[in-house]
Amino acid sequence: MAAAAGPSVRCWLWQRRPLLCGPGPRPVPGGGAPLRPCSTRGAQRGIHKPVIDRIIRVDHAGEFGANRIYAGQMAVLGRSGVGPVIQQMWNQEKEHLKKFNELMVAYRVRPTVLLPFWNVAGFVLGAGSALLGKKGAMACTVAVEESISEHYNNQIRTLIEEDPEKYKELLQVIKQFRDEEQEHHDIGLEHDAEATPAYSVLKTAIQLGCKAAIFLSERI
Amino acid sequence: PSHSYTGQGGQQSEDYESEEQLQHRILTAALEFVPEHGWTAEAIAEGAKTLGLSVAAAGMFHSDGSELILHFVSECNSKLSELLQKEQKLVQLGEAEKKPIDEFLRDAVEARLRMLIPYIEKWPQALSILLLPRNIPSSLNLLTSMIDDIWHYAGDQSTDFSWYTRRAVLTGIYNTTELVMMQDSSPGFEDTWRFLENRVADAMAMSSTASQVQSTGEAVVQGLMGAAVTVSKAETSRAVR
Asked: Where are the transmembrane segments (chain B) (predicted)?
């Protein structure tokens, strides 16, 4: 970060940039206040805030969306034979969402602006897929859970590349959730998801939607 | 990574100082001269002089005093955070009562605005400079992190859209109160603090109205669903007869 002399200098003190927040000993003559504008947020943890921010924001949005999808499916198929299965998967998603709510407060992460939109879109996706029948709902589950498992795997890779020790707790949480989402995926397959008419089209469309949702929720 | 002025042999001596730290020191020293010279290069030059540097040091900065103002805002925000953190510790240790939300917000905004008092004559000038397109990303960043800090220490734990509405409302309160303060000539700015109290009360009322509207809406929906079920059952039983 070169600060060129002259009027075009950009003082980094308050520019938005990926800062590695953390206590850094810096001898300053006469003693000075810490120069980091982010010192009030996450500095005590020495974490790479922008990366963690994104991870928690998008995971929170994902679990929120998954909750709404299962709610939509239950609204249509709740009283059918497959209702208890969906209810059980929904309960696990509720636990996941609770955990991410806690992490969001602990790491002071901003939730995505699109939450109201995911609220509606998730419910519509769940209800819509359930209207295609039991197999349709299972196909939706398979598609979504596959996307989410892949997404969690990417995050695990990122965190391990960063610093597995520092992010041990977060890694543990994500690994556990990834395993549970994988279970949901397998349950979906067990319940004849692949027998849905136009299964591959449906699956591709849903997974594209998931990719877009992940991309947007990370950023806004 | 910051560039530092290293001593001989490229080794960092004990009293090395990076360029940012030097700029920080100059700007801090310059604040003393703002009431007299405004947020200008002159104030920065005077500040540099008190540190034993040449007035040419002011050439490191923009001529409109942007960095000086942003530095001041950043310092005020840090001071506010420290203050709120100390208060939080006292509450955690049981040495102080936890304030109700409206009182907390009022006190936090008042504490932050009081930091402007020594510079209040020249603050309108600073506000207009902060609104320059060049400065907007930085000033917006500083504003949003300050508001987020206040809500964090107020105990906000929302993880839904209300995270945004709360911060938007508080930003509105802060900005309007700041503008009122610019034109306030009452003793001790009592008109400003009264304005602040009213705006915070409005915000609290608004949020309770919002939750009332929501529960009324839910009750209405339930009522309609019940009516629909009753009607459809009546139709079915009439059709059977």
From this structure: none
Neighbour tally for A76: CB within 10 Å? 21
- Lowest mean pLDDT: which of A45-49, A57-61, A183-187? A45-49
Q: What confidence tens digit (pLDDT) does each residue in A31-52 have? A: 333 333 333 444 446 788 889 9
Burial (0-12, 13-18, 19+ Cβ within 10 Å), A179: exposed
Length of chain B, in residues: 241
Write out the E strands in A17-83: none
B193: tokens are: 């603090």
Q: Do A108 and B141 touch (CB under 8 A)?
A: no
Instruction: For A20, name the nearest residue in chain B, comparing CA atoms only.
Output: B1
Give the separation between CA A36 and CA A49, rounded to whole angstroms: 13
Which pLDDT score, from 0 to 100, does residue B225 have?
A: 87
Give strand pairing partners of B4.
Answer: B18
**How sure is the predictor about B12, in pLDDT bands with cuts at 50, 70 and 90?**
low
Does B176 have pLDDT greater than 90? yes
Split at pLDDT 50, 70, 90, the class of B33 is very high
CB of B159 within 8 Å of any CB in chain A?
yes
CA dihedral defined by B199, A38, A113, B154, rounded to 10 degrees?
Answer: -40
The pLDDT of residue A31 is 34
CB-CB under 8 Å, A108 with B145: no
Please tell me the predicted confidence (pLDDT) of residue B62: 86
HEC secondary structure over A81-114? CCHHHHHHHHHHHHHHHHHHHHHHHHCCCCCCCC
Chains A, B: CB pairs < 8 Å: 107
Region of residue B9 (left: phi > 0; alpha: psi -120 to 50; beta: else)? left
Inspect the interface and report whether the beta carbons of B137 and A15 lie closer than 8 Å: yes
- Chain A residues with CB under 8 Å of B62 CB are 7, 9
Q: At what angle do helices A49-77 and A168-190 cross, to 10 degrees?
A: 30
Split at pLDDT 50, 70, 90, the class of A14 is low
Residue A82, phi then psi, degrees to nearest 5: -90, 0
How many residues can be counted in chain A?
Answer: 220
Alpha carbons within 13 angstroms on the beta-carbon side of residue A80 total: 13
What pLDDT is recorded for position B8? 52
